[in-house]
């Protein structure tokens, strides 16, 4: 049911820079509670299989730009250290053309370090004449998604109930304190990792 954000064209590679998050068992338990509750409002919700925090929009790179792009990223990100952030605020998002709705956990601490990372990623994107990240980003980890704009059904009462589940979940304060150890760039079917110091 997913719809491409831009048409597929030979030689064009969809590219995305992000922080990968390896979900632990307790996180998946919390996810299951949240998704099963949210499905009472929106039955078509699907839980995400993988988790990450975006540092760029999805952009299009020509194949021959991938290597220089990755090299520039590596140089720009080399000085960054590992850091923590807290993602504990439930929020509803839609993509730009309103074809998909997401439930995510928004970052409440660690915003400054994320903005610093985005600023370096943006500089690389500008060098390649690609769109930079959103002006006032809401950093988050998407947990579940559905087709269409169903934000109206998830906001308000449902959102309050989901936040309540997060706040009451055993050890959620510890669980939702995330340590970032690497940045990743996915271009088509290629993955590149940049370890944080």
UniProtKB/TrEMBL annotation:
| One GO BP | U6 snRNA 3'-end processing
Q: Is Hydrolase among the key words of this record?
A: yes
User: Which reaction(s) are listed as its catalytic activity?
Assistant: a 3'-end uridylyl-adenosine-RNA = a 3'-end 2',3'-cyclophospho-uridine-RNA + adenosine; a 3'-end uridylyl-uridine-RNA = a 3'-end 2',3'-cyclophospho-uridine-RNA + uridine
User: What's in the keyword line of the UniProt record?
Assistant: Hydrolase, Lyase, Nuclease, Nucleus
One GO CC term of this entry? nucleus
Query: Which molecular function terms from Gene Ontology are attached?
Result: 3'-5'-RNA exonuclease activity; lyase activity
Instruction: Answer whether the UniProt record assigns the keyword Nuclease to this protein.
Output: yes
Pfam families from the entry?
HVSL (PF09749)
What superkingdom does the record give?
Eukaryota
Its annotated function is as follows: 3'-5' RNA exonuclease that trims the 3' end of oligo(U) and oligo(A) tracts of the pre-U6 small nuclear RNA (snRNA) molecule, leading to the formation of a mature U6 snRNA 3' end-terminated with a 2',3'-cyclic phosphate. Participates in the U6 snRNA 3' end processing that prevents U6 snRNA degradation. In addition also removes uridines from the 3' end of U6atac snRNA and possibly the vault RNA VTRNA1-1.
Which protein is depicted?
Answer: U6 snRNA phosphodiesterase 1
What is the species listed in this Swiss-Prot or TrEMBL entry? Mesitornis unicolor (brown roatelo)
């Amino acid at each position: 049911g997913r719809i491409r954000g831009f048409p597929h064209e030979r030689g064009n590679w969809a590219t995305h820079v992000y922080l990968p998050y390896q979900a632990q068992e307790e996180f998946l338990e919390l996810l299951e509670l949240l998704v099963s509750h949210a499905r009472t409002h929106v039955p078509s919700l699907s839980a995400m299989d993988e988790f990450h925090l975006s540092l760029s929009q999805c952009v299009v790179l020509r194949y021959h730009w991938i290597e220089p792009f990755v090299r520039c990223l590596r140089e720009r990100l080399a000085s960054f250290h590992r850091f923590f952030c807290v993602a504990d605020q439930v929020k509803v998002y839609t993509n730009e053309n309103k074809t998909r709705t997401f439930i995510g956990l928004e970052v409440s601490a660690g915003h400054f370090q994320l903005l610093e990372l985005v600023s370096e990623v943006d500089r690389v994107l500008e060098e390649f004449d690609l769109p930079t990240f959103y002006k006032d980003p809401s950093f988050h980890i998407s947990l579940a998604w559905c087709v269409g704009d169903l934000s109206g059904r998830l906001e308000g009462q449902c959102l309050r109930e989901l936040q309540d589940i997060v706040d009451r979940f055993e050890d959620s304060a510890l669980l939702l304190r995330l340590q970032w150890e690497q940045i990743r760039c996915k271009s088509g079917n290629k993955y590149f990792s940049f370890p944080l110091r």
